[in-house]
UniProtKB/TrEMBL annotation:
PANTHER family documented for this protein: GLUCONATE OPERON TRANSCRIPTIONAL REPRESSOR, TRANSCRIPTIONAL REGULATOR, GNTR FAMILY
Organism: Streptomyces javensis
InterPro entries in alphabetical order: GntR_C (IPR011711), TF_FadR/GntR_C (IPR008920), Tscrpt_reg_HTH_GntR (IPR000524), WH-like_DNA-bd_sf (IPR036388), WH_DNA-bd_sf (IPR036390)
Protein name (Swiss-Prot/TrEMBL): FCD domain-containing protein
UniProt superkingdom: Bacteria
Keywords, comma-separated and alphabetical: DNA-binding, Transcription, Transcription regulation
The keyword Transcription regulation belongs to this UniProt entry's keyword annotation: yes
Gene3D superfamilies: GntR ligand-binding domain-like, Winged helix-like DNA-binding domain superfamily/Winged helix DNA-binding domain
Cited Pfam families: FCD, GntR
Domain HTH gntR-type: 24-94
């Protein structure tokens, strides 16, 4: 006889309809993510945004969606668009802040984001343990390629694409297709909350990738798992959920 999951413990793999951002249009989620990154100081005044294609790929939406969102953000005073060969879309020199009401959906989902991070920790630490035993030369070379791409990335959008490939290659190296499907669902839900980040911070994250790769090459399963666990656990503090809490405490103080 089939059993039912406990009603008091919703799974990230089955509760996507409960997410507040699911009630927000695609255009407004892009507006909210860029605006929230500005509010938290992740995007600085005058900073140039990646082109529309790269931004769309990094945020998991269509190019038309990004164009519409940027148009609205320009009217709201968050960004400025400049024509010409050296033009593009830039954060306004004095950007409007706290103007996008849909940011509230991200704050409403903060508990859910923390849970997704914990689920990713469990999966990736386990993958690292097994990948240290099973990952061969081709797998290590895939990781090396991703690391080089992240070192060379010129925007958060480029970095994010290579970062996703690095973690997926590591997960695939564990050789557990059934668990891989679970991992892709968890990360897919979590990536919907990622914001643009300063490249200096991201390059520091890539140094952690290099240490993880070294532990895998040395067949040091315990170290690889510990490094991966700490790397993902940092999201509790570095993602918007942790940064927003810090900012709010500062305002209250």
């Amino acid at each position: 006889m089939a059993t039912q999951e406990p009603s008091g413990a919703p799974s990230a793999l089955t509760s996507s309809a409960l997410a507040a951002i699911r009630r927000t249009s695609a255009v407004d989620t892009v507006r909210a993510r860029i605006s929230l990154a500005v509010d938290l100081g992740l995007l600085a005044p005058g900073e140039r945004l990646p082109n529309v294609r790269a931004t769309a790929a990094a945020l998991g939406v269509g190019e038309i969606t990004v164009r519409r969102a940027l148009g609205t953000l320009e009217r709201e005073g968050v960004v400025q668009r400049r024509p010409g060969r050296t033009g593009g879309t830039f954060i306004a020199e004095r950007p409007s802040r706290r103007t996008v009401a849909q940011v509230a959906a991200y704050r409403e989902d903060s508990e859910r984001v923390h849970r997704l991070i914990d689920e990713r920790i469990v999966l990736e630490a386990g993958f690292a343990q097994l990948a240290a035993e099973r990952l061969g030369r081709p797998g290590l070379e895939r990781l090396d390629e991703c690391v080089r791409e992240m070192d060379a990335a010129e925007s958060w959008a480029e970095f994010h694409a290579s970062d996703k490939r690095f973690h997926l290659a590591l997960a695939e190296g564990a050789g557990l297709p059934s668990a891989l499907g679970m991992y892709e669902r968890v990360t897919g839900e979590l990536y919907a909350y990622f914001l643009p980040y300063p490249l200096d911070y991201l390059r520091g994250s890539n140094e952690q990738h290099k240490a993880i790769r070294a532990a895998l090459a040395a067949r040091d399963a315990a170290t690889a798992a510990a490094l991966l666990r700490d790397h993902v656990a940092e999201l509790h503090h570095s993602m918007y959920v942790g940064l927003a809490d810090t900012a709010e405490r500062g305002e209250d103080g």
